[in-house]
Specification:
Elements (H helix, E strand, L loop, with lengths): L1 H13 L12 H21 L2 H11 L4 H16 L2 H9 L5 H24 L2 H33 L5 H25 L4 H23 L16 H5 L1 H4 L1 H12 L2 H4 L1 H6 L7 H51 L3 H30 L5 H26 L4 H18 L10
Helix pairs in contact: 1-2, 2-8, 2-9, 3-4, 4-7, 4-17, 5-7, 5-17, 6-7, 6-9, 7-16, 7-17, 8-15, 8-16, 12-17, 12-18, 15-16, 15-18
């Protein structure tokens, strides 16, 4: 009976017959496990968002702005830069699902440590410990990132991978929307809500680790000849499409870095913590599943469209600010920008999985993410320097970057064909 229910759910979500399985009879169950595990971890990501939730928490705990400023660089660089060093070891594993499960468990334990630190520490001590625990969480996340695309490629068919991840993003958005609404309407209990949300995030990561470990992944011989770090970097010479993809993805980091500068344009008319979390979650809810289905048809087109939508949103932000309509206009613009951001996340993930040769998925992922980690740090510094000329100039530069990504993406190959 369970198999029948799995098949029906699989058919409904993918729009394809359960018999049409390119990776074996276990695909419907694996598809649902992917969707459920990712839903939990994406909810956890939204509940612990360093840009919003942890920044607010450190401010409430009396930590200095130095620690607050370290949160996003630690989270982004920590999740990307270590992958070049871990991908070879993961590539040698017979079943890579265990790497993902270990990474998810590590994130859950780090999140639990952040809760404990918030309850017993204040000031600089709280800032230092929470930043250190966030670094642990980020490194654990990097293990999940470098292993996930390979597991997805082994257990879910090519034409259904974007659907699995897109559905998870949309489903997870519902939980984050509830959190955002609670923050907006129960402001007097905000600290309790945040501590509760971080505790729930820790539980979700642990539960996801357990569920993901039940995937039916074939035990195959690991890649004993997995590329060394130097050999992985030679991929940049061997595959021009990888280089072009990295350039596109690098330009599209503008959609991730721009939101704080929209706030500086004058969006004083809405609650920052609750409304920003709400805008991001709503954007994920209404767009991620659609982006996922579109990515299964052409992830290149998704990257292009995301760049155009992001550029339009950023230019619109400048317009509403110039017209004095920021109080209500910028929240709407932020919502549109976050739709573009979720398109970028969906498109880049699907494109990389479908582009990379099966034996080199981990290496492709590690090289791309390591380079992007460096570009994120550079772009963050670039944004900080540009902000000295004003938020208007910074937002305009980010709009140009997003539009440039759409242009460069025109030269990417269509990797979903065949």
């Amino acid at each position: 009976m369970s198999n029948t229910l799995e098949d029906k759910a699989f058919d409904a979500l993918t729009g394809q017959e359960a018999e049409d399985r390119s990776v074996g009879s276990e695909e419907p169950g694996n598809f649902l496990r992917h969707a459920a595990s990712l839903s939990m971890t994406k909810v956890a990501d939204g509940l612990i968002d360093p840009k919003l939730v942890l920044s607010w928490l450190l401010n409430m705990l009396g930590a200095s702005s130095v620690f607050v400023g370290l949160l996003v660089p630690i989270r982004e660089a920590g999740a990307l830069l270590p992958q070049l060093f871990t991908s070879a070891r993961i590539a040698r594993m017979r079943q890579r699902k265990w790497a993902w499960s270990a990474g998810s468990l590590g994130q859950g334990l780090a999140a639990a440590g952040i809760v404990l630190a918030a309850l017993v520490l204040e000031g600089a001590a709280a800032g230092a410990v929470i930043c250190a625990l966030l670094a642990v969480l980020a490194v654990a996340r990097s293990v999940c990132s470098v292993s996930y695309k390979d597991v997805l490629g082994r257990t879910v068919g090519k034409s259904r991978r974007g659907t699995a991840t897109g559905f998870a993003s949309s489903a997870a958005a519902v939980g984050v929307i509830v959190f955002a609404l609670l923050l907006m309407f129960f402001g007097d209990n905000r600290m309790t809500l945040v501590i509760g949300a971080l505790s729930l995030a820790a539980a979700f990561w642990v539960a996801a680790a357990v569920l993901f470990s039940t995937l039916k992944e074939k035990s195959e011989r690991g890649d004993a000849e997995a590329r060394s770090i130097a050999a992985q970097m030679t991929l940049l010479k061997e595959d021009p499409q990888l280089v072009r993809f990295i350039v596109v993805r690098g330009l599209l980091v503008s959609t991730a870095l721009a939101p704080p500068y929209l706030i500086l344009l004058g969006a004083e008319g809405f609650d920052r913590l609750g409304a920003l979390v709400l805008a991001s979650a709503l954007a994920s809810l209404v767009s991620s599943y659609v982006w996922g289905r579109l990515s299964d048809r052409s992830s290149r087109r998704v990257l292009q469209l995301s760049g155009v939508v992001g550029a339009v949103a950023l230019l619109a932000a400048l317009g509403v600010s110039a017209l004095g309509l920021a109080a209500w206009g910028l929240p709407v613009v932020l919502f549109v920008l976050m739709i573009a951001y979720h398109g970028v996340r969906q498109g880049r993930s699907t494109y990389l999985v479908d582009m990379a040769p099966e034996d080199d998925r981990a290496a492709y992922t590690a090289v791309a993410n390591t380079v992007i980690g460096v570009l994120l740090l550079a772009s963050g510094l670039f944004g900080a320097l540009a902000s000295m000329a004003g938020a208007w100039v910074t937002v305009l530069l980010f709009a140009v970057m997003a539009l440039g990504a759409a242009v460069v993406a025109q030269g990417l190959d269509e990797v979903e064909d065949g």
